[in-house]
Amino acid sequence: MRLESTLNEPTRPDQQPRTPSPRPGGRSARVRADVVAATLAEVAEKGYDGLTAEAVAARSGVHKATLYRRWGGIDGLVADALTASADQPWPLPDTGDLQEDLRRITQEVFSVFTDPEQSPTPTALISAAQRSDAGAAALRDFFTARHHQAAEVAERAVTRGELPAGTDGAEVIRAATAPLYYRLFVTGEALDARTAERAADAAALAARAGLFASIPTDPEPDTAPNTPDQ
Amino acid sequence: MRLESTLNEPTRPDQQPRTPSPRPGGRSARVRADVVAATLAEVAEKGYDGLTAEAVAARSGVHKATLYRRWGGIDGLVADALTASADQPWPLPDTGDLQEDLRRITQEVFSVFTDPEQSPTPTALISAAQRSDAGAAALRDFFTARHHQAAEVAERAVTRGELPAGTDGAEVIRAATAPLYYRLFVTGEALDARTAERAADAAALAARAGLFASIPTDPEPDTAPNTPDQ
DNA sequence: ATCGTAATGCGACTGAAGTCGCATTACGAG
DNA sequence: CTCGTAATGCGACTTCAGTCGCATTACGAT
User: Fold this and answer.
1) Where in the chain is the DNA-binding region found (chains A, B) (predicted)?
2) Strand D close to A19 by CB, under 7 A
């Protein structure tokens, strides 16, 4: 999961014309790229409470007042950085088996947020995003995009006949990854590879049982059929 | 899930002698109670970024400098408020059926965080806790305590023969509640009753399949062998 | 009742976040 | 090339979070 911005290099002019400014190809774009890059670098280094408008201004070479004018504050900087990351394409596994695909996805999440090299930026970014409405909205969009992309894994499983028709693919993804994010961003508990695997397996199991189908195949998936009692 | 402090009423002297101060029964205790109560009230009213040391000082009648001396800042206030909530006993369902117990638990979480009357305090408290090391530690302790308490639901199921021996009860609870917290505190998506129910059902299903047993009953609950490659 | 000590009250001080008005620069159109 | 305009640079100013030294109060022990 890449949260780095597309705009790291000032030489890419109009990748993200979200604010259709009258000067999309010139200095404004350069400024935006520099600022987003500086924001990501700062947030990775100092964490989200160490994130300062002055530091971003100093690092990017853009005046502090400009930051406040264009982004309205730290919140906007974070939101913009997140938005820039949202439409990043994302390599999806396609092993032909839902459980294995989900395992790879949760494994990927695990890797990113466990690797001290990669984790700081996305971790700080997600934490920072929760602090403002703008950030929260950007974060919601970000995850919506991710869920939508990753849902393909489940949709392929439906096509294969592995999952019941009408299965909500995004919901399968949420089920698989939620336990990881829950530990990372709510309880603060440690994360291990086995947890990642179990989460994927549990999601695959529930999906196969039809729990994520719009009209559940079997509303009460326990009781009679499979009661693996001991 | 009650996150309110035990120390709302200044007339309870030594309920929480965490800091074994030389004067546990006197003014210090009163001050702490007032401050914790004021913190909860403030955080509920103004959210976690509206939480100000000065406001807490004003509301509690305690000087600002005292707050910084005893609690070290907003972080400490939040952490203390959380700590005070951690050992609150918590009514557990006991319906004789794991799935139903889990449903009631997730339903309870859903209710608390959906009800505009109850949600502000715990929501803001959890968000605020993630902003500092002290808060994060207190939050971890809080959830550890909650998981441990709620694990009884799974342990009873083991006793009943409903779940395989060696099942990690806390893990079952985490699996059941994670999707809710994931939406509430990570993605910011809306939460509905059906999601709560599905999460409980999925957790029950996975638990019955032995996914949360220390030595999984059936490590690969689907397909025959596991050939990770295609 | 008295005294020593710790905790609190108090107000001034520091530093940084965020704002404002104005000067300057750079883009884009003609 | 020239000009109009929008964006940025600039520095001072306001505001508030957080700190410090000292005076005062209240607790607990003798």
Assistant:
1) 52-71
2) no
